[in-house]
Amino acid sequence: MTAAAAPSVASLVQSVDWLAIAPPTIAAVVALVVLVADLFLGERRKALLGRVSVAGLAAAALALLPLLDGDRSTFCLKTLKGEQAACSYTADHFTLVIQFLVLAGALLTALLSITGIKDAKNTPRALPEGEFWFLLLSSAAGAALLPASRDLATLVVALEVASLPAFALVGIKRDDRRSSEAALKFFLSSVTATAVTLLGVSFVYATTGTLHLTRIATALTHVDGQFHTLAQAGVVLTLVGFAFKTAAAPFHFWVPDTYVGAPLPVAAYLSVIGKAVGFSGIILVTVVAFPSYADVWGPALALLAALTMTVGNVAALRQQATRAYSAVRLLAWSSVGQAGYLLVPIAAAAYSKDADKAIGSTVAYALMYAAVNLGAFAVAALVARTKPLNRISDYRGLYRSRPLAALVLGFFLLCLAGLPPGIIGLFAKVTVFSAAVDAGLGWLAVVMAVNVVIALYYYLQWTATLFRSAEGEQAVQRIPAPLTAAIGLTAVIGVALSGAPQMVLRFASTGLF
Questions:
Q1: Most buried in the list 154, 280, 350, 419, measured by CB within 10 Å?
Q2: Residues 166, 274 contacting (CB under 8 angstroms)
């Protein structure tokens, strides 16, 4: 009896590959260090927490380097013979690319936040530093965990670890009604989406008897006919929570108010890291877990992509330059439109013989979008220091007062529009367009082309505003070093990628899975 049970017991013993899980673990540990240190530091020394957070995120990003030598997996189930059957955490090429995007984006957000927290200090809208840095690091840890997750339970947990601190970050402005309303709207809509996703996960588990993505992929090919409809419903419902995180229409309604109500660095964080979380989740559940149900999620994502890019670009087109926070609102609606472009290659993967290449197009586009969108928010944070209402009209004459900032913002906007000299933006859009055409989704390629033309108007209109004559004298302040670093880094990355755009696609698509 004892001898027979021994192999079964041994198979339950987990060996942890600490090097594989180092990136999210470092972010989580630094978050706890910041939380505890906040209790013992006086107000004059709170700024130290920001430096520790930046150092922690940099260390987490550097921890990716030892993982480049090959795929690593941990938290694995084993057969009675000791062979790996399925793993819950895998550090493959796809994982490392998305973790790099997440941790680098969080690092740039931290640089923006240092300036924002310092500017708000000793004002009625001062931000609690300890709580802010703890929440940012915790969310980054969850976001870094998600692309490595290879079972639905870990995916959902990672999604919530990334999301729950984000709710608090949106509403962290004390005694600010707009911030509180934004956080409540974000929270309620996200909780609803998560509930729907959990219902879908339960349906998938009921039909397959497993939560591991690779095992689900195998089990779904042998589903009994009586459970086929239940499995289809589970596939669709599971995608809802991730579609919400990507701000895909019709799950996008929280975006503009949330971006306006949140501190500007948090809005930048949501626009990039939030999308990375959502898209990596969608990619994992569709391409890895549900490939046999491509006839279900393929058309659904194609329609979602067309609707999302159209809603986002039309809404951005309607923004009034003199309306309060119109610059942030335009960036918010622009991010919805960009989400539509990002969905195109994932939908194309359902029809393509080379799904890895199609997914590589989405990852490459996400890398481009992350760099230039964070850069645009960084310049917006610079303008907001003297003009807190952040209207598009406030950017008029920026070239005269801050020529470098104006040129950099103009470059970022042209990248988002897909126009030279923003070659990386043009290359990314052509890559996505090609993925749709190669998959036979000609109608979706046409919808995308129309939306790109629509987007040209509002991007070029904002760009032209930068070089118009300003009304009155422009207030000029010294730019803090962290904000300068954020703008400079994003500009250098954007220019470098525009010089060699093929490097992005090669880096993003080489052996993703």
A1: 280
A2: yes
